[in-house]
């Protein structure tokens, strides 16, 4: 029986303006959920509802809010397999990866459950007697969170968990094509005892969401926006929030490089590039964009990499496969456009391109009736190629060569993104020189470009974001505002920088 899903505002189902069928991309004839899409007015209403609920939620002591986060973690853990199966069914992510994604929610909760007792401020010494200075972390108010569907439950938790812990209320707009997974996660959060209106979920298309957000910002019912998605949309959201003197938390796209040095373990580099480039069918913001290989090992690496890609298992995401289908029909259409960027001077070394069919088979393919595409490796990529400069969201990786570290860094930074990066080397000097020169917010040494941990900052620079960070203690700065307090108990008005004791030194003193 097809699931029927609608928005939930203030603990109640909200009206829908239209419907959307969320389908299984591994078997596109299967409808996972029929989703009721809200209009802009419903989004704005949800923000007003959250504003009212936030006042009381902020009064709940932070350690108690931490216990709610602990309960969310235990509930997710107890429902891990069911939630992971739903993620696999709805977006085609291999089940093993989906289980890892659900584990990431648990890790996030485990980290933040104690932060309710560590939302520390400081006691600061004053320059005047009988005066004390303090700082406090205060919740921002209402956070509007808009997330993509490639990580339909883990990435939202990076926003929802710290935002709620810090005393904020949230209006969450997930991707329509991952609505069933999002609704399931919402239900788990609600079961932890969150008061109605503290967390609201609104399903809407992009236009309605943007219009509703614009209205809510104008009404003053949103104080923070979190967005995970494309650089193009992130720029528009950044412009919108900037008009209201707000800075959005933006986690955007990437063109993530792997640099392979002459001394690299090539088998390890191939394994890392395979997972980085084609895990989740290349549909991560941290997916590999281009492998930049030293000319002395370029041909050997390319041969090993191409062979690994040709032999990679693609198919039914419930099986033991490297990748399943693309997320949704719109991503399949876009990926086919990316394939047109392959130019005559390029060389496809991985075999066929395009959709996997009976007439265009792939090695040990186990899928049927889904949005399955051949993994593609393109050699001979140049620094001015579109395929080199722009994000190609899907199973497509370019390969190019370099001679010096300076050249490698110039190539790695040239696209202007700055999310994730990796270098394969056994030389510590090369690793640290790469770290110093790369523009990315995240650097791996002898590891994939993909993979986050709950206690490290996650985020990018340039086209990949505005410098905001998620995860770890660093995300607390996104969902709190610092408040300074001075308490003068001298009984008189002491003027800063004026009524300050002065001890006069003898600066002309010299040792005999």
UniProtKB/TrEMBL annotation:
Its EC number is 1.2.1.3. It holds the Pfam family Aldedh. Keywords: NAD, Oxidoreductase. Gene3D superfamilies: Aldehyde Dehydrogenase, Chain A, domain 1, Aldehyde Dehydrogenase, Chain A, domain 2. Residues 16-484 form the Aldehyde dehydrogenase domain. SUPFAM superfamilies: ALDH-like. The keyword NAD applies. The keyword Iron-sulfur does not apply. InterPro entries: Ald_DH/histidinol_DH, Ald_DH_C, Ald_DH_CS_GLU, Ald_DH_N, Aldehyde_DH_dom, ALDH7A1-like. The active site is at 251. It comes from the Bacteria. Homotetramer. Belongs to the aldehyde dehydrogenase family. This is aldehyde dehydrogenase (NAD(+)).
């Amino acid at each position: 029986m097809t699931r029927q899903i609608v928005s939930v505002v203030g603990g109640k189902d909200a009206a829908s303006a239209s419907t959307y069928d969320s389908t299984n991309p591994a078997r596109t004839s299967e409808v996972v959920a029929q989703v009721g899409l809200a209009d802009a007015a419903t989004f704005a209403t949800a923000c007003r509802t959250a504003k009212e609920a936030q006042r009381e939620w902020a009064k709940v002591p932070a350690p108690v809010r931490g216990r709610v986060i602990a309960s969310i973690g235990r509930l997710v853990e107890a429902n891990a397999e069911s939630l992971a199966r739903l993620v696999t069914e709805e977006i085609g992510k291999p089940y093993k990866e989906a289980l890892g994604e659900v584990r990431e929610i648990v890790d996030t909760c485990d980290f933040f459950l104690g932060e309710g007792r560590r939302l520390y401020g400081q006691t600061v010494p004053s320059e005047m007697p009988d005066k004390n200075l303090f700082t406090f972390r205060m919740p921002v108010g209402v956070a509007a969170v808009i997330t993509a569907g490639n990580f339909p439950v883990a990435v939202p938790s990076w926003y929802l968990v710290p935002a709620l812990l810090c005393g904020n209320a949230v209006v969450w707009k997930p991707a329509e094509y991952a609505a069933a997974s999002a609704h399931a996660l919402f239900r788990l959060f609600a079961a932890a005892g969150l008061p109605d209106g503290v967390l609201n979920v609104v399903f809407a298309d992009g236009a309605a969401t943007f219009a509703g957000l614009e209205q809510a910002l104008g009404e003053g019912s949103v104080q923070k926006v979190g967005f995970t998605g494309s650089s193009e949309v992130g720029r528009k959201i950044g412009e919108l929030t900037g008009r209201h003197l707000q800075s959005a938390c933006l986690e955007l796209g990437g063109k993530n490089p792997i640099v392979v040095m002459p001394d690299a373990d090539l088998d390890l580099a191939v394994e890392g590039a395979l997972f980085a480039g084609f895990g989740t069918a290349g549909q991560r913001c941290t997916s590999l964009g281009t492998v930049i290989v030293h000319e002395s090992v370029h041909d050997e690496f390319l041969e090993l990499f191409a062979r690994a890609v040709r032999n990679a298992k693609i198919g039914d995401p419930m099986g033991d496969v490297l990748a399943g289908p693309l997320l949704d029909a719109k991503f399949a259409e876009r990926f086919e456009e990316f394939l047109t960027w392959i130019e005559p001077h390029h060389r496809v070394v991985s075999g066929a391109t395009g959709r996997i069919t009976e007439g265009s088979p792939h090695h040990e393919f186990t899928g049927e009736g889904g949005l399955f595409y051949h993994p593609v490796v393109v050699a001979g990529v140049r620094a001015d190629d579109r395929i080199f400069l722009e994000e190609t969201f899907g199973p497509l990786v370019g390969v190019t060569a370099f001679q010096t570290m300076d050249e490698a860094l110039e190539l790695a930074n040239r696209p202007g993104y700055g999310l994730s990066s990796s270098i394969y080397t056994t030389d510590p000097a090369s690793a640290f020189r790469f770290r110093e020169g790369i523009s990315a917010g995240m650097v791996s040494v002898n590891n994939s470009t993909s993979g986050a941990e709950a206690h490290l900052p996650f985020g990018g620079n340039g086209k990949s974001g505005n410098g905001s960070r998620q995860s770890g203690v660093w995300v607390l700065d996104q969902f709190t505002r610092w408040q300074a307090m001075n308490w003068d108990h001298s009984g008189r008005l002491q003027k800063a920088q004026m009524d300050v004791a002065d001890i006069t030194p003898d600066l002309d003193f010299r040792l005999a």
